[in-house]
Amino acid sequence: MRLAFMGTPDFAVAALDALHAAGHEIVCVYTQPPRPANRGKSLTPTPVHSRAEQLGIEVRHPLKLRGQQAELAAFRALDLDVAVVAAYGLILPQEVLDAPKYGCLNIHASLLPRWRGAAPIHRAIEAGDAETGITIMQMDAGLDTGAMLLKRATPIGAKETTGQLHDRLAAMGAEMIVEALDKLPALTPEPQPEEGVTYASKIDKAEAKLDFTQPAAVLERKVRALNPFPGAYAELNGERIKVLAAEVVPAKAGAEPGTVIDERITIATADGALRPLVLQRAGKQALEAEALLRGFSIPSGARFG
Predict the structure, then answer these.
(1) I want to staple 129 with a disulfide (CB 3.0 to 4.6 A). Which of 83, 92, 124, 266 is the partner?
(2) Which of 104, 96, 108, 117 lies closest to 150, judged by CA?
């Protein structure tokens, strides 16, 4: 098929590669503009931009599409069979949705209608969902409200992080979008059910601080949900220490939430205790708890804020 690909982060690269390998004619890639990154704050292209250039595909990166008549005319002139969208980051105006012969198909990393929105992988882990998956959706003007074309579930591992699940879902989405295009136009769109709708709000760095007045099981899920970004953390004597992996263990009765209750940095919570397994001090490498304690004292009775 003759298509445009619209995506920005690493999640979308697998789908771009799969469509290219399947022999589809990708006439243009749309992505977010290069932005300052790294210590030098030099303008850095998105992962999709870099990969498209490696594949020899034209790249466009408009700041916005809505109301941009020249951009909309250029998109219509591509004469597309379909546009494939994966974590693009721009709202598509109706003129874009209507331009391709078969419309715009979105690779969404959840089992819609659960977790519409910006951070479905993080929120599924944080909520303790037993499974998640990929939905290939026919896009409409709403926020992830379009009819479903393909849907496939996968269990969430008991210790799985957002980074690990992200990579699995990216591969799954890549496989499924190729399957969807192979079956177009025979696929029958299925409207999303009205019940079970949840929204995955964008991750805010302010929510990364661990609150030990919450149950240990909730905190352990948050640690996994925010790994690798932005990383859950706790504060000890004014120092911010990231917690990259942890486990739930029994707590001593009456221990004040936030208090270290043994020599293994086990921290009391509202219900049970959280034992950090991998930690990272500011500006230093991540270490297993045992290795961290060889050069950094966190005695029993210390208090995390």
Answers:
(1) 124
(2) 108
User: What SS3 state is found at 117?
Assistant: strand
Residue 183 belongs to what domain range? 2-199
**Which CA distances in Å does 185 have to 102, 147, 179, 182?**
8, 14, 12, 9
Strands 116-117 and 59-60: unpaired
pLDDT (tens digit, 0 to 9) for every residue of the chain, 305 residues total?
A: 999 999 999 999 999 999 999 999 999 999 999 999 877 678 999 999 999 999 999 999 999 999 999 999 999 999 999 999 999 999 999 999 999 999 999 999 999 999 999 999 999 999 999 999 999 999 999 999 999 999 999 999 999 999 999 999 999 999 999 999 999 999 999 999 999 999 999 999 999 999 999 999 999 999 999 999 999 999 999 999 999 999 999 987 789 999 999 999 999 999 999 999 999 999 999 999 999 999 999 999 999 98
- Given 160, 182, 199, the domain boundary residue is 199
Distance CA 260, CA 265 (A): 6
Residue type, 50: S
Under DSSP, the state recorded for 189 is: P
Based on the domain organization, do 191 and 73 belong to the same domain? yes
Q: CB within 8 A of 49, min separation 6: which ones?
A: 29, 31, 34, 59, 61
CATH code of residue 250: 3.10.25.10
Note whether residue 236 is domain-resident: yes
Same domain, 189 and 214: no
150 neighbors 84 (Cβ within 8 angstroms): no
- Bridge-based pairing of strands 233-236 and 239-249 is antiparallel
Q: Does 47 sit behind a cis peptide bond, omega within 30 degrees of 0 on the bond before it?
A: no
The verdict on residue 304 lying in a domain is: no
What is the pTM (predicted TM-score) of this model? 0.95
Give residue for tokens 């879902």: 169
| Spatial distance between the Cα atoms of 280 and 254, rounded to a whole number of angstroms | 29
Question: How many other CB atoms sit within 10 Å of the CB of residue 127?
Answer: 16
